[in-house]
Amino acid sequence: MRKVIAVVCAFLLFLSACSTFSATGSGAADVSADEALVMDETRSTAAESVKSTALNETRDREETDIRNTDRVNVQIGNESFTIILYDNDAAAAFAEMLPLTLDMSELNGNEKYFYLDSDLPAMAEPVGDIRNGDFMLYGANCLVLFYDSFSTGYSYTSLGRVENPERLSAALGSGAAVISFRKIDECAERHTGK
User: Fold this and answer.
1) One Pfam family for this entry, by name (predicted)?
2) Domain residue limits, the chain
3) Alpha carbon distances (Å) from 28 to 38, 151, 174
4) Of the candidates 144, 142, 151, which has an alpha carbon nearest to the alpha carbon of residue 172?
């Protein structure tokens, strides 16, 4: 991905350098106003394309960077869900904090959040689209569990995703929610008596 960005940046730099030449002493032909407008639009479109590609590649990479061993049981009242954590430092640091039971506050009718006492290693990136079941970190210490899908301009560190989040919204309800997080292996140990 860095190579793609570097090539596009070099191309944009080349285009911007070409548009600054004038016929006075440079030997280059005059650029008409229409040609300059086309070059500006090309640069703008290329920059938007790079941003969109970067967002999509980040999301695709996160979905393939799932640790099968880092599965978290999420208990909300009588409902149980599983979060599969992504393979990144923030998700690993969160897993080390478990088990946790948190009283998560409501925000905007689409998320529950909780501010931790300590920071996690944040690597925030613009996510573009939030999906029902996304589990993210806002800033360095705010856990966010989304239960609706929407577009956003905010940046988050992706921690993981709830498997089969169809019942998540109903389980969370409209106000604050008490949510327990436990590693799946801890849950198995509790039931087997180990």
Assistant:
1) Cyclophil_like2
2) 2-64, 67-192
3) 18, 45, 65
4) 144
Residue 14, C-beta contacts closer than 8 angstroms, at least 6 positions apart: none
Q: Exposure string (b/e) for 50-70, b if CB count within 10 Å is 16 or more?
A: beeebeeebeeebeeebeeeb
Q: From CA 146, how far away is CA 110, in angstroms rounded?
A: 6
The CATH number of the structural domain formed by 67-192 is 2.40.100.20
- CA 85 from centre of chain: 13
- Lowest mean per-residue pLDDT among 36-45, 78-87, 103-112, 134-143: 36-45
Percentage with pLDDT > 70 across the chain: 60
Rg for the chain (alpha carbons), in Å?
23
